[in-house]
Input
Amino acid sequence: MSIPATHAASPSAPPLLDVRGVSLSFKGVKAISDLSFSVARGEICALIGPNGAGKSSLLNVLNGVYVADAGEVVFQGEHFRQIEPIDAARRGIARTFQNNALFRKMSTLDNVLTGLARHTRSGLLSQALRLPGARREEARLREKAEAILDFLDLQAYRDFTVGSLAYGIQKRIELARALVSSPTLLLLDEPLAGMNAREKAEMSAFVRDINRDLGITVVLIEHDVGIVLSLSDHVVVLDYGRKIGDGAPDAVKSDAAVISAYLGAVH
Amino acid sequence: MSQTLSNPPLVSRGVAPVTRLAPVALPGPRLGLGLPALLLLAFGVVPQLGGEYWLGAILVPFLILSLAGLGLNLLTGYAGQTSLGSGGFMAVGAFATFGFVVHGGLPLPLAIFLAGLVTAGAGLVFGLPSDRIKGFYLMVSSLAAQFFFEWLFQKFPWFYNYGSSGTITLPRLELFGFDIGSAQGRYYVTLSTVVLLTWIAVSLTRSQIGRNWMAVRDMDTAAAVIGIPVYRSKVVAFAVSSFYLGIAGALWAFLYLGSASVQSFGISRSFQVLFIIIIGGMGSIAGNFIGAAFISLLPLAIDHIAQGFFAGHVDAGLLQNIQKAIFGLLIIGFLIKEPDGLARLLRTLGERLSNWPLRF
Output
């Protein structure tokens, strides 16, 4: 099956991210088989599919937590067979996790500041002795973190330990931590899971702002089909680790294979 | 899209139960006048009031143990790497200082500083396994450091300058030509060192390095994904922690004990330093001082009580065992009830008192 994709960027521009024939298995169980798709610069791409379809595994391949058995990932024109998580972060791939992976005992502000680790230049001695260079850098980092707290409306929580905050707030803090490093590509693993309707609306508005105002390309996994269809420019459907749909939301929605495999029978 | 697009099952998506306790605010830098007052007290008042015994036999070891606790706390409380090698690293500091003074003829302050760097190097080496080994297993591997250094400084007489008893001692304590052998002199030198190193530790914990440590402690996979050099952070934590422990060991040997041997830095010293941070509070700077005060004052208090109430009925050996039992119970109690230690208990109490008439 093939549905023409209507990407946000012009069709001639090379894709920001190109997944080519990626396979991944755990002890013989295929999690992803021969998966290929591409994400254009500036779009919101949604990965959907039933539980166990390989969506989270794919994100883990993209930022180096898992190493693919076969295939390659092309990011900004560079080809990778495998990539270390820290390299992925340095190249501008940021992500959030399905179950929040925040630093529980640290404050909201400190959590966001950790997202700037790869932008820190000053050394041990200059940080230990608070030399002027380190102070200037720290002031600059804090300014950046505060701006993100403002952007995501998190100022009210800045000095609280994140472990003690509500789940929905934690999800937003994790987003802030990913965002503060000015990524090129943002991978969101179920950013709306476990939220009520109002929180979902807020969160999807933030995702849209991030995409539109900050120009960040977003790949997200989400189960709420209504939100996926309204939020994304491009939908990739997975089932048992294979791609069964790829294209604009409206086209995917009406595709027979997708509906039968994933969305349920039409009544 | 009004079609029946039945949502896929959302059930049992790992939504962790969230503790709906009141949010916990972290204390900001809120020292105000407290710190200058404390420093004035420590530098100005205490040396005038405290006699030879209090300064030399209680305050000096208290300060040095606080420093050792600080060293271990940076590693365990902040960076989340367990270690039982504190005693071994303190021994490295003491024996290296001795070597630099006796074999190298260096002045004491420089010798202690260089000994700190040597210990940092040793800590770095023993921190290398932390790439692969975590938690309890790392603690066991740190025992290797403890036993290796105990063996090293006993086996090769060069380290204690071929003396017959295996002890190290410095002929005269001198700082820039001044004699610092008196209790007051030793107190001032120890206090200044501890204040300076505490300030540096506070700076570190509030810097990106400190935040990286805490991130590694709280969740190391996430730390790697957001771009924190996890392994480097761990190894740096081992080096910095050992630097502190090395200096604490040098001070312990020469400013408190006067003459030391490998036995001064045995495994029980490692446990003592670990107890300080458990009782005082992991991941708290003030906790080291509180824990060290507790651990140095409790035996005195028990002695006093025993002498006051059961004079003559309790023999010294039994008293020592009672002490150990009390420490053991306290450790268990703290680990279960308040893993954040006395520092946290005191803060909570302070917060409650400040709201006192309304809600205790």
